[in-house]
Amino acid sequence: MYTTSTFLSWLKEFTYFIGGLGLLSRDVIKQLLNKPFYLRLTLEQIYQVGSRSMPLVLVTATSTGMVMSLQYGLGLEKFGGKLYVPKLVASTILREMGPVFTSLMLAARVGAGFASEIGSMVVTQQIDAIRALGTSPIKRIVIPRVLACLISLPLLVAMANIVGNLGGLWVGVSELRLDASYYYLKVITTSNINDYLAGFCKSFFFALFIALPSCYFGLNVKEGTKEVGIATTKAVVTSSVMILIGDFFLSKLFWIIQKWA
């Protein structure tokens, strides 16, 4: 049962998180353009975040497109609206499902990896050793991971959009008995650049929602290896919640921008 002390404890922890995340973001921005640049470390993280996440993202995107096509088709078939399936699937994947599901998968895989890896470095005093050598942990540890997410996630989202629509096309042809040429033509003609940009631009914000909290929780491990697991859990949950909440506000923002553009 929740009590006043529990709520105050949660509020205190939340306040510390917001403040710590703001300070970490400030340090990242401040040191981002200063030398030295650790290009090799950044490329390694791009491989870990992008290339190794690709199979997971492709499977998720394909399954999402197939399920959406089937559900829309079976639901609209009762009203004679099965022909609208390509437009609905394409618009939903481009604007919402592609970027959101891809980001959630990366939050689970990459966010957990960042938090546990950095937390283990804190416990084994590798972070202290980096500071003792006169190198900034932000520069060497955090910035390569932030840049890797900012580069990899938009590319993964672009791939997820294509694969998700291909999954919808396959179900549309095999299960809903739609013509493949018709399905492809409707996707091309009804989807516009605003649909694509709305989802693609979200991916940059989602990348920050994954990288920064994960690095923050990893850097703030203090009480040994037990807290590494706690930090990993917090990183995944916090990143996922920020993605879902941020998606609403970003969607509203892009609709307002498109309305006044």
Name the helicity range. over 70%
Radius of gyration: 21 Å
Task: Report the portion of residues in β strands.
Answer: under 5%
Secondary-structure class: mainly alpha
Number of strands: 0
How many alpha or pi helices?
9
H/E element order: HHHHHHHHH
Low-confidence stretches: none
Determine the mean pLDDT. Answer: 89
Distance between the termini: 50 Å
Question: What about the largest sheet?
Answer: none
Question: Which term fits the overall shape?
Answer: elongated
Total number of domains: 1
SSE arrangement:
Elements: H1 4-32, H2 39-49, H3 54-77, H4 85-123, H5 126-132, H6 137-174, H7 180-190, H8 193-219, H9 225-260
Helix pairs in contact: 1-6, 2-6, 3-4, 3-6, 4-6, 4-7, 4-8, 4-9, 6-7, 6-8, 8-9
